[in-house]
Amino acid sequence: MYKIVRKRLGEQSSYRYYIKVNPALSKEEALLVRREWEPHIDKHGHLQPNGILDWFNTGLTKACSVLMAESEYVSSLRCETLHDGTVLVHATISSKKDSSGDEQFNKGDNHVDTFSINIYPVFTIDSLNMPSDLRFSSPLPISGPYVLVQKNLKQTILDDLENGKQIIFLESKNDNCYSSQGRCSLPLEESLCWRLNLNFTDHHIFQAMDKYCKTVDFRQVLILMNIIREQYPHELGILNNEILVNSIFILSQKRFSRLTALHDWFLELVKVLITGLRICFLPSFYLPRQNLLMNYSVTETERRMALGVLDDMLTSLRKNPKNIYDLTGYTEKKKNKQDADESEEDAESHCGNEETDDIEKDDARSSVAELHTC
Asked: What are the CA-CA distances from residue 83 to residues 163, 276, 286, 297, 299 (Å)?
């Protein structure tokens, strides 16, 4: 029914797309589609995310009111509209465990669960409507023995789509403008453009890093940063998991072969975060022109507070990177030598395959040329 299209790079952000009534439809089919979504399709046939989001939020708010009135298990249910136009639902429910150990809802029980869920509509991209200009990259070096890793990642994601897995979406979230290297560029037509989300492809990225990074488990870097973030919730609360994971991916692609110790990875991550906060631009790994600070509407005050804490931390870590263990109380978990040797053998194996197959190497290099999403 719909076709995903995008304007030229200079006219539209790399992570924003139009959803348009498919011009290949017959007049009768196109008319039926327009009638179905008539309030939210403009004269050019574009499906408007703002209209869809408003329609969805209205229904969600009504559903929460009904649930609050009719459910005996819900103690509190509140809807909060975020800066991007989506709704965050705050819920408090009561529950207890029965004799089998399973949780059962029961109003008035002493066990209370409180959680928040960000709910919003998305448009799922499958193998039939995936944009031809969409590129994928792995946070490993884009040269040497890792070239084939980049090529294989793209094929793995395509295989997922062919098998019907839902891992790529267009979100109906609002932006004020898109930015390149800290400079605000052209204003977006918010009522027309949908934001691309590739975060559900993360597990393929993690698998690649686990296979080749045998000396350090990058998840330990996240654990250290989360410990620090809990110590400074007010100052470092803006550094959410999406920002941290994307920053680690960017660091990995540039310094993967040079960093071997956990404390060195953490030191370099702090440097990446400080640099990004200073220039007001922390990019998405998948979509380098997308500013994650803008996605989360980080204010100038929040940015400066985070910089203050990270600058003090950097001063301590530069004297001795292992100070991070004193700051967090975390003990480094060392990988065994056999795992490290296997990693080196894997890399050498890939390198040998490239040297004996020139055609395959050329194909891989052409794939690398497509990696940088702009």
From this structure: 35, 22, 23, 7, 12
Do 6 and 133 form a contact (C-beta atoms < 8 A)? yes
Which among 269, 206, 207 is positioned nearest to 239, based on CA atoms? 269
pLDDT digits (tens, 9 = 90+) for 198-214: 888 888 888 878 877 77
DSSP state of 41: B
Instruction: Give the H or E element holding residue 362.
Output: helix 358-368
* CB contact at 8 A, 247 and 273: yes
Closest CA to 139 of 242, 248, 221: 248
* Cα 329 from Cα 279, distance rounded (Å): 31
Q: Which residues face 124 on adjacent strands? A: 169
CATH of 125-341, one of 2.30.40.10, 3.40.50.2300, 1.10.1410.40, 1.10.3720.10: 1.10.1410.40
Alpha-carbon gap, residue 104 to 94, rounded angstroms: 9
Q: What is the pLDDT of residues 88-138, one digit of tens each?
A: 999 998 865 555 555 555 444 457 888 899 999 999 998 888 877 777 777
Q: What is the CA 13 to chain-centroid distance, rounded?
A: 17
pTM: 0.70
